[in-house]
Design a protein that fits this description.
Elements (H helix, E strand, L loop, with lengths): L6 E7 L2 E7 L7 E4 L5 E5 L20 E4 L2 E5 L4 E6 L13 E3 L4 E7 L3 H5 L16 E7 L2 E9 L6 E7 L3 H11 L6 E3 L1 H11 L2
Parallel strand pairs: 3-13
Antiparallel strand pairs: 1-2, 3-9, 4-7, 4-8, 5-6, 6-7, 9-12, 10-11, 11-12
Length: 203
């Protein structure tokens, strides 16, 4: 995605130009483009038998697991999503159960004070559901676009959300998010800000 803010640190990773840091990032809250991170769709009749990278898939739809830099979302009885959050040089998954969707999917992170409240302006999904312990998955429309939304933290000190959608909506969604978050001071940040934040929450 393209933001109007000027990047000050970038690197080429695979075929992606990854922004590590933007100028004047300050304290946030932040919107971070993670679309370059590796993502797989996992489909199998008996998902409990699947352990990608040795990580068990959650048994219940709507549950998520974070381990060793991987996030696994149980979507339904036969489907899960696997996202690389901060894995260094991850191996590629092989086999008919795995479909790489990195290029097909946009992935955004919202971190910092107020990002839970921001979602109320763009979705009816209950991201502030205190009966669910983070991380947990919600599926449904955000700004009228079908999305996967993962709540990573929802307390005063660890507000954080991941949101994935079809890549074709990515640029317009980013602009919608920044507009919705303007009153909270939402601004773009690079990948480093997210990795530093999520490693503190899920070491």
């Amino acid at each position: 995605m393209t933001f109007k803010t000027r990047p000050i640190r970038t690197e080429i990773r695979n075929h992606w130009q990854v922004v590590l840091e933007y100028e004047n990032e300050a304290e946030g809250p932040f919107l971070i483009d993670l679309s370059h991170r590796n993502k797989w769709d996992v489909q199998y009749a008996d998902l409990v038998q699947m352990q990608p990278f040795g990580i068990p898939i959650p048994e219940t739809p709507g549950k998520s697991t974070i381990k060793d830099g991987w996030l696994i979302n149980r979507m339904n009885q036969t489907q899960a999503a696997l996202w690389d959050l901060f894995v260094e040089n991850p191996q590629m998954l092989q086999g008919p159960a795995y479909t790489e969707v990195t290029d097909a999917s946009a992935l955004f992170a919202f971190i910092g004070q107020g990002v839970i409240k921001m979602q109320e302006k763009i979705t009816s999904l209950d991201v502030d559901c205190m009966k669910n312990e983070p991380p947990f998955l919600l599926q449904g429309p955000v700004a009228s676009v079908p999305c996967q939304v993962v709540v990573l933290g929802q307390t005063e000190i660890d507000h954080g959300i991941l949101l994935a959608c079809s890549r074709g909506y990515g640029q317009s969604m980013a602009e919608t998010f920044l507009c919705a978050g303007e009153e909270w001071g939402l601004r773009p940040a690079g990948e480093t800000a997210f990795i530093d934040w999520v490693k503190k929450l899920y070491p």
